[in-house]
Amino acid sequence: MLAWAGCLGYAAYYSGLDAVAGISAGAVAGNGVHGAVGWLFSTGDELGRAGVYALTLAALSAGSVLLRRHGVRELPGAVVVLGACWLFLDSHIFWPRGVFTMLAFAVGFGLLTVAASRWSGRLTNP
């Protein structure tokens, strides 16, 4: 349940970042109102930070469930995902750090999936 709450918080707050910092700041800057752009980016950063904290909560709780169900095989993936959450606090998606953060998420989630699948034997073809 905690993982779902974290996912919901991430979806809401990180979407808020995109709406405020991306859409609104772009619209205001295009109309020559440059003083408001900094305020919109600052508000967007706060929303994004709350979203990443929620994502971290979801990753922690989901990782702990996976560790209980499948054992220490899940530990490398969980550690990589949590590291990516930490990097995500200030990297968003921009080159170079943001790109490596997104790659770390992909690697971490891949490791979690492979470890859980290997444990249950789901990777074998029928």
Description of the molecule:
Helix 1 packs antiparallel against helix 2 and helix 2 runs antiparallel to helix 3. The longest helix has 37 residues. It is built from 4 helices and no strands. By secondary structure, it is mainly α. 25% of the residues are buried.
Largest sheet: none
| Stretches with pLDDT under 50, minimum 5 residues | none
- What helical percentage do the residues reach? over 70%
Broad structural category: mainly alpha
Order of helices and strands: HHHH
Strand content: under 5%
The number of helical elements comes to 4
Radius of gyration: 18 Å
> What is the end-to-end distance?
33 Å
**How would you state the average pLDDT, rounded?**
88
Number of domains: 1
General shape: elongated
Could you give the count of β-strands? 0
Keywords: Membrane, Transmembrane, Transmembrane helix
Protein name: Integral membrane protein
Quickly describe the structure.
The chain is mainly α and 126 residues long. The chain has four helices and no strands. It starts with a helix and ends in a 6-residue tail after the last helix.
List keywords for this structure.
single chain; 126 residues; mainly alpha; 4 helices
Mind sketching the topology for me?
Layout: H1 2-30, H2 34-70, H3 75-91, H4 97-120
